[in-house]
Amino acid sequence: MNRIAPENWYEIKKIGDGVTYICEPYIKEFYRCNIWHVRGSQSDMLVDSGMGVVSLTSWVSIVSEKDIAVVASHTHFDHIGCHHEFKHCIVHSAEAKLLADPTRENTLASRYAKDDIFIQLPPQPYQSETYSVRKTSNAQIVEDGHIIDLGNRQFEVIHTPGHSPGGIALWESKTGILFSGDLHYDGLLIEDTYHSNPSDYQKSMERLLELPVNIVHGGHFQSFGAQRHRSLIRNWLDSKNH
What's the CATH code of the domain at 36? Predict the structure, then answer.
């Protein structure tokens, strides 16, 4: 399998509403974390940071243009790989210790980070057998209801345990934008990690169903609108109740 040069590892696409999608196209879609950049008047926000096999700050200029809050929707390896590159990181209290002391096991890298998740391999010196996430120090800990203030935009932290204990979604009420992490996206959901919880998962899905969303940007796969949002959650809930 060929290796990709670092300058070609990321692709960037403006979505609208000040949201930019940062993609790692050489990771297969199922394993590929969506990285979301949100522009604010006083500061920006990054929702998740990918695998960390290529530096974001070195090769994606948009993440370094102004002060930026880098949020961990949760602490699995594919979502926090570049968090260590940033000064202001945000994580829910239930997973703060994981962000500060990640291992191949507690980030699920030992389970999923294999050569076969790639279409083409990352540049040297990446090796799947030894890959691990670097520690992130002094992250800001948030709880349910915390507001991430970008100046002209405010995102509410919604604690959504289920996929993992410290999973969070980010909700902007004035636009109806929801960043839903790995709890809710338009693809096969992972409900069997070592710290998943079925009861919490159902409660979190019920909570998201109540939101008057316009668009959902999930942790994986394509974004979708209000009708698809309701349909996905209702179908999921129905499957658990039969």
Answer: 3.60.15.10
